[in-house]
Amino acid sequence: MKPQSPIKIFSGRNSDYLAEKIAERYGQKLGKTSVLEFSDGEFQPCFEETVRGSYVFIVQSTNPPGDNLLELLMMVDAAKRASAYKIVAVIPYFGFARQDRKDKPRVAIGAKLVANLLVAAGVDRVITMDLHADQIQGFFDVPVDHLYSSSIFLPYVKGMGLPNLTIASPDVGGSKRAHSYSKFLNCELVICHKTRKKANEVDSLTVIGNVEGRDVILVDDMIDTAGSITKAANALKAQGASSVRVIASHALLSGPAYERIAESAIEQVFVTDSIPLRGDAKGKIEQLSIAEILADVIRKVYSHQSISSTFLM
């Protein structure tokens, strides 16, 4: 009987903090890599140990800058050329996911392009979490394990014991996600309808539903500049909500995000560690780790077990 190929877990520089925790929970050391940097900004990743015949998992979120995506692609290519048996890209945050369709003439479908690049580089499988749009799974010609951070957040919310819990979506597009939370928690659902003049700038926002005296939790997949989420929180508070909290999988938190959260009606923001934090917004942000979930899924993928038990939604 042919022996099982050894498993090795590596990381790009953007996600080494998370990969260390994943490897620890899996029960082995993180693989050794190095990056040669040239003075003009060019870089060359290198595996500092053999991967021949190995089941290679590479952990890297692809949030901006584009070097994070390029580094992942180059690591996949290096593993393929070093005769790895299987190459799995573990992408806690899948960047460019907001570009999942042509919403106006003469624009790229960036998410599809990234999928093509990963497949061309040589990935055999992708593990990711809370894609901005579910249909991105179909952009790949290899298996995609799409995980949900709800498996972390839902038990946490239940443990908070909020007496008048209401789940809210900051926009109509996220209503499906918010509905899943409200159904699981058996509580009311409220939707905020927003209009935009341009990207990252909300023009107007209307609350659909009653939040008087309720403890509201806004649910979203990501927080970028925090414009939408803070406007929604302030509107909910103005409508009589007792408290407003936020759950978001990916804490991009670019531009004035930290300042907006600090000055808003939001009491707490719960995010995952898919992306490293740059600040704390006056102590309002709490980070929950997804390392245990990813380690468990890596273990099941490696041993060819079902990962269905990982999903709560």
Compact summary:
This protein is of the alpha/beta class.
Describe this protein's structure.
α2 links the parallel β4 and β5. This protein is globular. By secondary structure, the protein is an alpha/beta fold. The model has no long low-confidence stretch (mean pLDDT 93). The longest helix has 15 residues.
Walk me through the topology.
Elements: E1 7-11, H1 16-26, E2 33-37, E3 43-47, E4 55-59, H2 67-81, E5 86-91, H3 110-121, E6 125-129, E7 144-147, H4 150-160, E8 165-169, H5 175-185, E9 188-198, E10 201-208, E11 215-223, H6 227-238, E12 243-251, H7 257-263, E13 268-272, E14 285-288, H8 291-302
Parallel strand pairs: 1-4, 4-5, 5-6, 6-7, 8-9, 8-11, 11-12, 12-13, 13-14
Antiparallel strand pairs: 2-3, 9-10
What are the key terms here?
313 residues, alpha/beta, seven-stranded mixed β-sheet, five-stranded parallel β-sheet, 8 helices, 29% helix
How many strand elements? 14
Task: Please give the radius of gyration in angstroms.
Answer: 20 Å
Helix content: 25-40%
Biggest sheet, spatial arrangement of strands:
10-9-8-11-12-13-14
Low-confidence segments, ≥5 residues, pLDDT <50?
none
The biggest sheet, with number of strands, parallel, antiparallel or mixed sense and barrel status, is: 7 strands, mixed
Q: Give the amount of beta strand, in percent.
A: 25-35%
Listing every helix as H and every strand as E from the N terminus to the C terminus, the arrangement reads EHEEEHEHEEHEHEEEHEHEEH
Class computed from helices, strands and strand pairing: alpha/beta
What is the average per-residue confidence, as pLDDT, rounded to a whole number? Answer: 93
Number of helices: 8
Separation, N- and C-terminal Cα atoms: 38 Å
